[in-house]
Structures are given as structure tokens and as C-alpha cells.
Amino acid sequence: MSPRTTTSLRTPRALIAVAALGALGAVAGCADGGTGGEAAPGTPGAAAPATPATPGQTDQPRSGPADPDDPFVIEEVASISEPWAMTFLPDGTALITQRSGTLAHFDPATGQNSTVTGTPQVVHAGQGGLGDVVLAPDFEQSRHVYLSWAESGDGGSGAAVGRATLAADSSALEGLEVIWRQEPKDSGNGHYGHRMAFSPDGQHLFVTSGDRQKLDPAQDLGNTLGTIVRLNPDGSPAQGNPFADRGGVSAQIWSYGHRNPLGIAFDPDGNLWSTEMGPRGGDELNLITQGQNYGWPSASQGRHYSGQDIPDHADGDGFTPPAAYWVPAISPGNLLIYTGEQFADWQGDALIGGLSGQSISRVQLEGTQATKANEWDMGQRIRELEQGPDGAIWALTDGNNGQILKLTPKA
Hints:
Layout: E1 5-8, E2 11-14, E3 72-79, E4 83-88, E5 94-98, E6 103-107, E7 112-116, E8 130-135, H1 139-142, E9 144-153, E10 156-166, E11 173-181, E12 193-198, E13 205-209, E14 227-231, E15 253-256, E16 260-266, E17 272-277, E18 283-288, E19 324-326, E20 332-337, E21 350-354, E22 359-366, E23 369-377, E24 382-387, E25 393-397, E26 403-409
Antiparallel strand pairs: 1-3, 2-23, 3-26, 4-5, 5-6, 6-7, 8-9, 9-10, 10-11, 12-13, 13-14, 14-15, 16-17, 17-18, 18-19, 20-21, 21-22, 22-23, 24-25, 25-26
Pfam family, one: GSDH
Region (Disordered): 29-71
InterPro entries: 6-blade_b-propeller_TolB-like, Glc/Sorbosone_DH, Quinoprot_gluc/sorb_DH_b-prop
């Protein structure tokens, strides 16, 4: 474990939402180095073509002088290898997934963690591994925990979601069963998605499902690649899903036309939001609505890695455009809708961890409208943001030398 240290925030970067059309300078950047945000910064790639500014876009450089009005300080609490997701238990401790397949039980008071047994065998390759972790809405009664991971099978690999019971001392998962599988399995080890969120009433589980870097399946309702699915807590398709009359896996789908959605969360008004990695540029924050097609790969504010053009989202194209997007890319790793007291001015806003952007971005949410507000340079790839019981913000940094950071308001 690394010793606890406290540092001030590195380089805050205020962003301006451009509200008028106009051609700006050429932008360079790559949302994911061809691998969905998992490639390290500096991955080779030609600059993307210039993209005209539209509402919700920023073309400001992600750098600048230090700002004396940094909003928080960072406490480096512990180190952890390959962290991916984090969720707090009612006793104030937390579960943290590690992409290698380990589930850690972390005690913020001591900075120590221990291994939770009973986890599944995972495909630990490319972007694959142990993924998200969320508690059942009735956790205090059932002690049910939901995990997602990449698994192998006929045709290659794919995302899976399982449900298990966490032992009373949080040392083991018991009775793990797979309740959902991404279909079909496919070659490669990218774009699994597999972030999860329960609806505010606790009745439905939403799971993001990436396109597996196969593009066209995201427009095919006969599979679950490039979709967000809506399930009952046992993994069965929820009643009222928009494509249920088609039968098969179509009955699971809530929305489609997604690339690699790596964040999903409900706001206090009950609106569902998702962050999605674009190709070269064009990362998105989407308001997720039943039955809507979000355009991938037919529409994007980004460009293919080859430099080939993708039509921008446009009125009348039949696709739902993003509520906000980023050019150049930030590579959103997850999504947190903040509801705590410590950063009272941010209540109800979206906080997004950036991988290639090495940043935290704040987007103001007002009803169904999104306005980009700030971006802060963290100097490290941010994989996960999670709200602690006391309203502090916790961050997991990416990679073998990952860190567990606690962010609190500057005095």
C-alpha cells in the first residue's frame, strides 16, 4: 500500500460549451487508441479531420496554467493493481473489482484491502477482465451483489453478469450464478461495455453492452451488441421493453446504436444517462430513452481511425444525438451523478472520469439538458469515480500501478 498523502489538484481546465456553428482548427486525439480507451496515452494515430463546432462541443485545449480556485484536494489512500469499479457497503467499507479477476474488500479507514473469494474465471486480455460491481437495491436484506466480467465461450468472448450473496464478513461470494450474457460471443477483446445501474425503484437492472469493435451489429436488433439492455433482477427481460414483440434477445433491448458505453447512472429526477466512447473524437454523454437509436456506426461526431469520415449527427437523420460530446476525446471510463453534501453546488451533475484525457469532467444537468462546465487535469488515467457515504468523491486510477484517491473540498 502507498502511504497516505494529501496533494492539491493538479491543473484545472475550464471548458466552454460552444453554442454556435463554425469551423475551428483541426483537432488531434483518439478516444481509445483503437481499443476503447484502454490504450495508454500517446498511442500512435493520425490527427482527426477538423470538425465544426456544434452545441455541446468544446474545442478548447485540455491544458493551461494552475488555477488558485482548485475545488478539491486529493488524498492518496492506497495503491491497487488494475482497479475497474468500486461500490460502498452499508458499513462504510467498499468492494473494488480488479481487471485480473480479483474482488477486493477495501477499508477506507485503514487503507487496507483483502481478497473476496468466489469470483468467476475471467478473460483477462485486452479490455477483458472483471468489470463492474453493484449492490442489489435490497442488499441489506438479501446481501446480493452483481458483478460483470468478460468470459470465454463458443465464438470467442463476451460480457456476462452474475449475481451472488456476499458473506456476512464480506470475505466471500456465495452461490454465484450467471444471469445475463452478451450475445453473440465474438473474436477480439474490446468494447465489452458491461456497466450496470439499477432503476430508482429497484425493479430493473440496466446493463451496457459494447459493439465489440464490430460496428454494424450495433444497428442489428437481432443481437445485444451495441445496446443497453433492461432486465429484471434475475436477468430475465423486463416487461415493457420496446422490442419484445420480436422475441429472442431483442426482448432485452432498451436502446441501441451504441459503440462502447462505459458509464450509466440515473439522476435524481429519474433520467437515465450514459457515457460512450467515440472513435477518434466524438465521445458522448447520452440521455437514454426507451427504443431510441443512438446512431453508431452510421452517425458520430468523431472519425474512424483510418481517417474515413463518419456523418455527423444531424436533424432528421433518425438518430438520437448526444446531449454533449467531446472533440478532442477524453475517453470516458465511467459516469457518476453526484448527490452528496460535500460539493453541494454539484448536486445532480454528471462527473466523468477521463482515461486518455487524464481528467475529471463536470457536466451540469438541468432536466434533460446537459451543459459542460469544468474539466480538471488529474495527470493520471481515471477509470472510476464513486461517491462515498459522506459525500466525498473517490477515484480509481487505471493500470498496474493504480491508486485509490479520495477527493474532498478545498478548505
